[in-house]
Amino acid sequence: MPGESMRAPAMNPSSTPRARSRGAAEGRLTLTDPAVHAVTDFILQQPVTVPEELSIDDALREMIRAGVRALLVVRDEVVTGLITSYDIQAERPLQFLIESGYRRHDEVEVRHIMTPLDRVPTLDWQELGRARISDIAAFFRATTTTHVVVGEHVDQGGPVVRGLISRTRLERRLGHSI
User: What is the DSSP letter of 131?
Assistant: First the structure.
């Protein structure tokens, strides 16, 4: 899947295996639980997406409205990257302004500071089905990444983004940092 274009998730459910539903009352996880329990499964919960040309201020407002800290970035129906609240509220916008010809914060678009999809760690849904939470925790401990995209190959149309795993959400559900 790395290097392949991935489509945004479909609106309708598929017949593939599903992770547990994620609601307001998320349960605790243990390191021996199946890794799919850490996934925000886009078959069950519609992802929040934004176009590349959206201003970062509007993207942050969308995150607040939706109660999420990361958004899939799309061009047409293809996922091109990921943007997080940290990307918007930390140094990236200022670094972009310094390095570019832009002068004002309100000119900065999502595409200017997002992490391109090919630089976001990606795991395969089928392989994840054989893994445990301990495997995901070990992966996060070995990296500085905050999110992992979960991709899935479907019969027609190539790979799609099936879900997302958040380090912060996993830590919260485990009850300790990883």
Answer: -
Q: Nearest to residue 143, comparing CAs of 171, 161, 167, 112? A: 167
DSSP per-residue letters across 157-178? SSEEEEEEEEHHHHHHHHTS--
How far apart CA 35 and CA 125 sit, in angstroms, is 10
Say if CB 160 and CB 13 are below 8 A apart.
no
Cβ-Cβ contacts under 8 Å for 117 (sequence gap 6 or more):
6, 79, 80, 81, 82, 149
CA distance to 2, 27, 52, 86, 91, per residue, from 97 (Å): 30, 42, 17, 17, 10
* Structure confidence at residue 7 (pLDDT): 76
Burial of 137 (0-12, 13-18, 19+ CB in 10 A): buried
Residue 78 half-sphere exposure, CB side, CA atoms within 13 Å?
10
- Find residue 158's DSSP bridge partners: none
**What Å distances lie between residue 115 and 39, 45, 52, 139, 169, CA to CA?**
20, 22, 11, 19, 20
Q: Domains (ranges, CATH) in the chain?
A: 6-174 (3.10.580.10)
**Residues 3-18 pLDDT 10s:** 567 877 764 433 333 3
CA 45, CA 62: separation in Å to the nearest integer? 16
Q: Is residue 167 within 8 Å of residue 146, measured between CB atoms? A: yes
